[in-house]
Fold this sequence. Notes:
Largest interface: C-D, 33 and 33 residues
Oligomer: homotetramer
Number of strands of chain A: 0
Largest sheet of chain A: none
Low-confidence stretches of chain A: none
Order of helices and strands of chain A: HHHHHHHHH
Amino acid sequence: MSPRADALRNRAKVLTAADEVFLEQGTTASTEEVARRAGVGVGTVFRHFPTKEALLEAVYLERLRQVGADAAELATRDDAGSAFHEFFERLVGQSGPKQALTEALAAEGVDVADTDSPVRQEVRESLATLLERAQQAGRVREDVGVDEVIALLIGASQATRWTTDVSMRGRTLNVILDGLRPH
Amino acid sequence: MSPRADALRNRAKVLTAADEVFLEQGTTASTEEVARRAGVGVGTVFRHFPTKEALLEAVYLERLRQVGADAAELATRDDAGSAFHEFFERLVGQSGPKQALTEALAAEGVDVADTDSPVRQEVRESLATLLERAQQAGRVREDVGVDEVIALLIGASQATRWTTDVSMRGRTLNVILDGLRPH
Amino acid sequence: MSPRADALRNRAKVLTAADEVFLEQGTTASTEEVARRAGVGVGTVFRHFPTKEALLEAVYLERLRQVGADAAELATRDDAGSAFHEFFERLVGQSGPKQALTEALAAEGVDVADTDSPVRQEVRESLATLLERAQQAGRVREDVGVDEVIALLIGASQATRWTTDVSMRGRTLNVILDGLRPH
Amino acid sequence: MSPRADALRNRAKVLTAADEVFLEQGTTASTEEVARRAGVGVGTVFRHFPTKEALLEAVYLERLRQVGADAAELATRDDAGSAFHEFFERLVGQSGPKQALTEALAAEGVDVADTDSPVRQEVRESLATLLERAQQAGRVREDVGVDEVIALLIGASQATRWTTDVSMRGRTLNVILDGLRPH
DNA sequence: AATGAATGAGACTTCATTCAT
DNA sequence: CATGAATGAAGTCTCATTCAT
């Protein structure tokens, strides 16, 4: 009801639209297209995100947030080993949309330095918990840390991007998961 | 005899320049920039590659050719197991330039169907030989085929892209290579 | 209420500029030139007319509109015969600018099928009235219809385009007008 | 056998090809396309016609030559009246190719001043003979001269360009021919 | 705050013309 | 003389960003 509420709602609409558009058409999609999808004028997009790059960062951050939420949730599971595996499987996902999460992770990777957002810290922490519990349960080798896991997460999801059917994806992902086992 | 020679040399210059430019600035780099780097006019670039897309394809194909050459060479090694491992290590590479090979592989993956170039067939064949010999030597699990290996190659090199130092890269790549071992 | 007004004014400015430029330099004149003449940026031209072809069509349509207005006005005259003659004389015009109307008619002719704009229908109807009244008054032969008149209109104005002085134009146009008389 | 002979043959090949290409694709067709059609290199086209405009002029002149030949031939006919009519009918033609002659005439008209080629003089003279004989035979009104006839020739062929069938073309051309009769 | 028209740099591509072979 | 590769100006169109309403 307050003008602030409308503004926030618009910000959210833009972010959602941007996520969808960049997912479907790649990051070269035009800002105009994002605005159209969000049902607002271009000016509104630029009011909330002063630059296309800023918009992209926000989208990635939002995706990261979801990865973090997944990790945090799974970190509370009893069976630490299966939780770790399921995290990989969720991220690698069945189809397109989920792929995006990795893109976000990857993008984060690109400019590790300047994007030191709190979100990133949270994701790392949830991931660390998930990993350590799996290692303590003897289900993941000890010589990998959070950074290696992130890299492998990205690798796994890029790898499965070129798989043509479910069984091929399974075989491919298994290689990586097997490689993560002790020994 | 000679006019042809000059033209071919220019084609090569353009291709090399394009490879460099796209590597450094991404595929959105302008054709003018490629021309500048090659030391020719834009018209020359378009004479040899009628479209920017055609230029990109040519760059990718050239990179693929190098992957194929590596695979073919290693396929003749006595120690099939170490040859297979070295192939991964070479592709994953030390740094930027080599990374590009994977990008090319990935790009190939995108349109598996329509890009049925002979180059692609040759790469697959060399890879198949390399893989089969490693499997016969009992160094690689039997449930993966050429397609899975290609996917993992892409995954491995994307994964190692986010590694910050040699030892981290080593640990990350080892996970995948270990995962490829029997059992 | 006002932002729309400005946009419409700009659209009109562009259309007018385009009409002038295409008249002076032919239809191969550049869009930049049109923008310059209109005192706007190129982007504005393309916002209103997404394609150069669309701009050309709009220019022709506007010219057609004027032909239609002339025909409609003359169709209300008492002396149907002189009205018909005057219509020819107006179209054939004194000099350059008016000539353009025929160019528009001609362009319409090219794609009779796909350019089924209401404007075209209106012009045909006004012309039909003008013609029928002249025929009923016994001033125009009965074996010609609207289509023949349009063709002759185009012919007359192309013919007079190569006339060097007023009297030559008169003699040339008279041939056609005489030819249109009964018998 | 002499090098001159080959050169002349090439000039002719280029001219023929240019005539065809410009007819089919309009005068914006590329010089490269003309060369291709002629089976020669672009360089050869430019050796014979130093400019695209020069090539166009040559094409138009060649077309004019044919108009002149037609006029000259018909000027020898016994029946001066029917000869004059047939000249119009030939020029207006049944279909595309012949149309080109008018284009050439029109182009000539454009720069009456600077293109004072002998060809143009010859055409005028043949036409003058044809016209005068028809007038002497009482078949063409006396108040038109060669210039008016040329203008009407152009007008007639532009007019019939928009006719959709033979009968419509007939009616349209008849209006002009009737207008040319005495009285 | 929101809107969307305006802007203009810059991208891709074409083509007349030149020139080394 | 012929060839066709090279050149680069110029054209069409897109899009991030600004700003008047």
